[in-house]
Amino acid sequence: MSVKTEVAIIGGGPAGLAAALSCYRHGIRNIMILERDEHLGGILQQCIHNGFGLHWFGEELTGPEYAQRFIDEIRKTGISCLLNTMVIEIKEDKTIYAVNSRNGLMEIKANAVILAMGCRERTRGALRIPGGRPAGVYTAGMAQRLINIEGYMPGREVVILGSGDIGLIMARRLTWEGARVKMVCEIMPYSTGLIRNVRQCLDDYGIPLKYNHTVIRIHGKERLQGVTVARVDDKRNPIKGTEEYVSCDTLLLSVGLIPENELSEGAGVKLDPITGGPIVDEFRQTSVPGIFSCGNVLHVHDLVDYVSKEAEITGEGAYRYINGRSPSDSDYLQVIPGKGIRYVVPQRIYGDSDVEFYFRSNGIYKDGTVELTDGEKVLASKRLMRMVPGQMERLILKRELLTGVSKTKKLQLRWRNRNEEDDAECS
Amino acid sequence: MYDIIVIGAGVVGASIARELARYKLNIAVLEAGSDAAAGSSGANSGIVHAGYDCKPGTLMARLNVQGNAMYDRICKELDVPFRRNGSLVLAFNDEDVFQLERLMVQGVKNGVADLRLLPANEVLEMEPSINPGVVAALWAPTGGITSPYELTIAMAENAADNGVEFYFEHRVESIERKENDKFRIITSRRDFVASCVINAAGVNGDVISKMAGDDSFIIHPRKGEYCLYDRKWGNMVSRTVFQPPSNMGKGVLVTPTVDGNLLIGPNAVDTEKRDDDCTSAEGLAFIYSKALESVPSLPGDGVITVFAGLRAIADEGDFIVRPSGVSEKIIHAAGICSPGLTAAPAIAREVNAILTGICGPLELKKDFNPIRKGIKRFRDMDWEERMQIVKEDPKYGRIVCRCETVTEGEIVQALRTKLPVNTTDAIKRRTRAGMGRCQGGFCTPRIMEIIERELGIPMEYITKKGGSSRIVLGRIKDFLEEGGEL
Ligand SMILES: Cc1cc2nc3c(=O)[nH]c(=O)nc-3n(C[C@H](O)[C@H](O)[C@H](O)COP(=O)(O)OP(=O)(O)OC[C@H]3O[C@@H](n4cnc5c(N)ncnc54)[C@H](O)[C@@H]3O)c2cc1C
Ligand SMILES: Cc1cc2nc3c(=O)[nH]c(=O)nc-3n(C[C@H](O)[C@H](O)[C@H](O)COP(=O)(O)OP(=O)(O)OC[C@H]3O[C@@H](n4cnc5c(N)ncnc54)[C@H](O)[C@@H]3O)c2cc1C
Predict the structure, then answer these.
(1) Does domain A341-426 have CATH number 1.10.10?
(2) Domain boundaries, chain A
(3) Which of A38, A195, A209, B309 is at 20 to 30 A from A355, Cα to Cα?
(4) How many CA atoms lie within 13 A of A58 on its CB side?
(5) Which H, E and C letters describe A89-107, residue by residue?
(6) What are phi and psi of B156, to 5 degrees?
């Protein structure tokens, strides 16, 4: 089967849904969402806790509720949604190969493609945690699916490694279900999750969060028997003598998400080694003209509201591209992360409209400003009382400020402490 | 009542079972694990060794070279991936070169064909990622790679197709001699009676031997640990790259796998425990640092899993393939350390010869079928084949494992062979579902649903690898009724 479409959207999570609606609002009518799951909504369908939509809808919704609002909108538009359909290859010329049980193999020729495949979780193997290989070691997201979608308990006595949001949410969820969460170990001196989640999911239930701690060994042959945890030094190496055996039948890993970009790479899209997602411009167009990217496949977001917001931009990008108004490589101005900043998205800008930058810090910083600079000139800045890696930050650059800035230059986003002299980092 | 009982369904036991399935014999295989290849055969380097590193004149040397020559045909019959990618042993100094020369002489004595010493420039031309400090290498084009667990499973499946019965999760606990010269074999589940027992229990070879009253040898387990890299790094080398040999084994190697990943390991650590397949921080750090000596650009991340296997080192220093001193109806295939994977088909023939020597010529079955068809992988099919198979069976249109592109059709097929398997690891080894970069994070719940539906095992009782390895421990709310905290 071979079909044509104006815009093909890979992934029907919040990013894909908002991107589709945005394309529609820009007047594009031939839009197709390809989703491998049996329902739309992506990872939100298993996030049955609330805390979604405060920024976008101004109220607190659960994950499925948040998704449903977009799905209802989609239904009104006649955008075609192919469910249970897995995209297995994307070519640079924007030909897409997908497979499902109904149509078999499909070849879809699209004018523009929006990548919205989300991310996957880092695993035990990636961390190379030594020890046995028993059952009972799961990623937090898999445990979430087991409990919230399938209705099963992964275990009774749980240790969680990593203080990512999913792990925090799962600590509370498991506690509600009668499991005992013995501790959350975090190798860094701070949580990689949202502060509110640390409070609401651990503190409120008396679950200890051990900073500078990690799991150094897994015990058990068939089912997990326990783990050895240890304190780490400032190079994150375990300190001898601090080992502690903790018996448990379940170890959940919440140690990071990895944008799922194998398909993107296959299409020739260049990736940013730090974000693990494509290098994009302000319309989230990748290095391959006509291929866009948004949501967790672009960089890992903590709040779905900003996923939706980011995805909206791609609709305008796709519209411009289809109508031949896309910038070429030489039109771009690079934006690079400077002091205190781990990454910034977009990594390059065209600059004919205001740009909102999304970025994360590389450590904990207190009381200062983030500045976007052109040499010594500050183009935009924002005061922040606190900047932490677990929380994505934003900064808007007004279009007018770019007049006169040479395209050959690189803009830099950097942190500056409030007290100039005292330039030392706090942590 | 069986003519023959084979203890252990590793590559050795499975090869013997398949070899003997040619004859009109009533055969059962008893295996403690929940599947074939539960022991060392599931956790090794997967190299089909050329045969230059065994001491000339040993059984090991002979069976290695014989086994190696049998691989093309066997892997074809069994539909198992096998590639003669060739092996390189590197030398970094004069002493190493001397070692290579020694290996070369040894290899020639053992009957290994086409061995050559290559100068550095040729080595680097063949494998540009190799450490430029290399001064020479021994090139053995007959070396190859296979998937050790797939081969073991295929051997077992083909044996089962030809009438051999497999009993998984049947751990042999004792062996009694009966008056009528038969053996009663007591397992963790039930008793079996057999005229002849073949001991292929891997690292427990001496334990089984003792059960039968024979304490003529001792097995020492020696552990080897590995890191497996994402496919992304599968092309760093295309040959198997060894370091100069040491007295603890063949050293750390860097090799592509038949599935396109990159494997580094093993180290060699003596251990007391016979079920110790744990990896250690020191071990993993050691193999990485050693592998860097061969391939300096090896990335620090990109590892998707780590594992370990146990070599069964016999105190006699050679493979033990012979009838027991206490009864010729007990035949040992013990102490089968490396290159046991390579030698397994030849060991099976050796056992056949021993058996014939004892019992006289065995009667061949007319309908023995040496052909086994593996599960056809959607991933490897071309466009046309994919179209066709989804049309025939819509289950092939549902992709369950996204990393390895495994369909529901393949998973169902894995559950429908003659081998009684029902674990997620069994599915993983047959289809690769869960073996990719997300390591089952996405597909495990979906695979459990398929097992529940196909085999009628409730979700709570599905295990990763048998025994107490249940994946979920109850339904939600179950723990609350037991007096949970809220
Ligand atoms: C456990 C958890 C808790 C969270 N808590 C909060 C919270 O409290 N508040 C908040 O605001 N945010 C929260 N988030 C964040 C928010 O849910 C995510 O940022 C958001 O879901 C990302 O959207 P996405 O569309 O990029 O990715 P996803 O939701 O992952 O969607 C990607 C979609 O693409 C599909 N797909 C992928 N590859 C293919 C392919 N090859 N072919 C077809 N389809 C494909 C997937 O099936 C999926 O449906 C949480 C996230 C998680 C995981
Ligand atoms: C680190 C390492 C690397 C290696 N690399 C290579 C290589 O590259 N090339 C090569 O040719 N060889 C290699 N080998 C050797 C090869 O793996 C072994 O020789 C081979 O797997 C041995 O097979 P087996 O069937 O004898 O043992 P196993 O595979 O261990 O099988 C024995 C079986 O017996 C079962 N069993 C044990 N006790 C009982 C009991 N009481 N009741 C019932 N069942 C029982 C076990 O569960 C197991 O399944 C390597 C070995 C190791 C450990």
Answers:
(1) no
(2) 2-120+258-326, 123-255, 341-426
(3) A195
(4) 0
(5) EECCCCEEEEEECCCEEEE
(6) -65, -45
What's the CA-to-centroid distance between A47 and ligand 1, angstroms? Answer: 9
Q: Which residue of B has its CA nearest to A136?
A: B471
Mutation choice for ligand 1 from A43, A201, A307, CB with most ligand atoms inside 8 A: A43
Q: Amino acid identity of B486? A: L
Test A142 with B441 for CB contact under 8 angstroms: yes
- Which has the minimum average pLDDT: A250-254, A331-335, B127-131, B234-238? A331-335
Task: Select the residue from A84, A105, A156, A227 to test the B interface by mutation, using most B Cβ atoms within 10 A.
Answer: A105
Cβ of B476 within 8 Å of Cβ of A84? The answer is: no
Looking up tokens 């183009």, which residue turns up? A379
Q: Which uninterrupted H or E stretch holds A292?
A: strand A291-293
Nearest to B473 by CA among A167, A170, A184, A143: A143
Residue B134 DSSP code: -
Fold classified for A123-255: FAD/NAD(P)-binding domain (3.50.50)
Protein fold of A2-120+258-326: FAD/NAD(P)-binding domain (3.50.50)
Q: Which of B274, B271, B268, B261 is nearest to B305 (CA)?
A: B261
CA distance A140 to chain B (A): 9
Q: Is A230 helix (H, G, I), strand (E, B) or coil?
A: strand
Q: What is the pTM of this model?
A: 0.92
Q: Tens digit of pLDDT for each residue in A272-331?
A: 999 999 999 999 999 999 999 999 999 999 899 999 999 999 999 999 999 988 777 778
Mutation for testing the B interface, residue in A45, A82, A121, A128 having most B CBs under 10 Å: A128
Q: How far apart are CA B305 and CA A49, in angstroms?
A: 32
In the numeric block, the tokens 């050790």 are attached to B148
Listed in sequence order, the DSSP H helices in B437-477 are 444-455
Indicate the Cα dihedral angle A35, A40, A42, A45, nearest 10°: -150
Task: Judge if A2-120+258-326 and A123-255 fold alike in CATH terms.
Answer: yes
Find the helix or strand (DSSP H, E) in which A395 lies. strand A393-397
Contacts of A190 (CB under 8 A, 6+ apart): A211, A364, A388, A389, A390, A427
Structural contact between residues B358 and B195, judged by C-beta atoms closer than 8 angstroms: no
CB A298 within 8 A of CB A281: no
Q: Can the peptide bond before residue B339 be classed as cis, meaning omega within 30 degrees of 0? A: yes
